[in-house]
Specification:
Layout: H1 2-16, E1 19-26, H2 37-48, E2 62-69, E3 74-82, H3 86-93, E4 106-112, H4 113-120, E5 129-136, H5 138-153, E6 159-160, H6 175-185, E7 197-203, H7 218-222, E8 235-241, H8 243-258, E9 268-273, E10 276-282
Parallel strand pairs: 5-10
Antiparallel strand pairs: 1-2, 1-5, 2-3, 3-4, 4-6, 7-8, 9-10
């Protein structure tokens, strides 16, 4: 009996009364295929018309952030998205931006608590949903709270930026870059997170809009199925945090832990709700950075 009580107290102290950051990850309905320009375009179009039965689609995948600082009794949810999806469609079909839509800056919408909980609820237990949670020190948790408050005060939540944007440079953010910025300011970046990136060289011939000054019809992309991401021609190098890669990694690590294996160098636990998989990793020993959040 004493062992059971000990286990209960351990779980209670490490989860219910622990400071933490969570990235809530959502895969697109059918998945985005990043293997080449044609496949990315086709898969994105298919996801944009997929039937999600009235639920928020997350057609290009999505990330929400949860910061839970039990040490000071503060618990928030935050997210970054565009204010109007129609703008991207207009740029793609009317203004002929081609893959330039990946680099465009849109009017943003800063998502908060109740609206996020409402959007996430229908996906409870869905295979399209997962969670990465890091247990952190109280100092790190409070630093992340300070960061997001400054982010909002500076108006950066009104900027939904392309995949290349860096939120710590005041450029606004996409949803995944926004989520990762919390880990960056918290000193929580780990080597395994490099697996969460998609790294591509986007041919400039497929990029329209201000970056190139060109008009690129979507038909130009659709009629070149053999085209590749390539550094053999004029291109724009892109390294983007990919929510679907993040979710895939969480699922793989979850399965390893469930099977009794380990993630070398880390203390990790797994959780399952229906088909949703989560992992909890202990990063409480990571030192809290100091100084400004913003990169000049």
């Amino acid at each position: 009996m004493s062992k059971l009580i000990g286990v209960f107290l351990f779980l209670f102290s490490t989860h219910l009364l622990a400071d933490s950051i969570s990235l809530h990850l959502f895969r697109s309905p059918l998945g985005i295929d990043w293997s080449n320009p044609w496949r990315m375009t086709i898969s994105t179009l298919k996801n944009s018309i997929a039937n999600t039965h009235g639920m928020r689609a997350y057609s290009i995948s999505h990330v929400f952030v949860e910061v839970k600082c039990d040490s000071i009794g503060t618990h928030i949810y935050r997210g970054q998205t565009s204010s109007d999806d129609s703008n991207e469609k207009e740029l793609l079909f009317k203004e002929k931006y081609g893959l330039g839509v990946m680099f465009h800056t849109y009017k943003g919408k800063f998502e908060k608590d109740e609206s996020i909980l409402k959007d996430m609820a229908p996906y409870e237990g869905s295979e399209r949903r997962g969670r990465f949670t890091a247990l952190v020190s109280p100092q790190t948790c409070q630093r992340m709270l300070q960061y997001v408050n400054e982010y909002e005060e500076r108006g950066y939540g009104n900027i939904y930026s392309g995949l290349q944007a860096d939120p710590l440079k005041g450029q606004g953010a996409g949803c995944s870059a926004f989520g990762m910025s919390f880990l960056r300011v918290g000193g929580l970046m780990e080597p395994f997170m490099e697996k969460w990136k998609s790294i591509i060289n986007v041919p400039k011939r497929f990029v329209g809009g201000p970056l190139t000054g060109n008009k690129v019809s979507i038909l130009k992309i659709l009629t070149h199925p053999a085209a590749q991401w390539s550094d053999k021609e004029a291109h724009i190098h892109l390294e983007a945090w990919n929510p679907e890669r993040m979710l895939k990694w969480v699922s793989e690590v979850h399965d390893l832990i469930t099977q009794g294996q380990a993630l070398p160098g880390y203390k990790v636990e797994s959780e399952t709700v229906g088909e949703s998989k989560s992992i909890i990793i202990d990063l409480t020993a990571r030192p809290t950075p100091s100084g400004a959040f913003w990169i000049n």
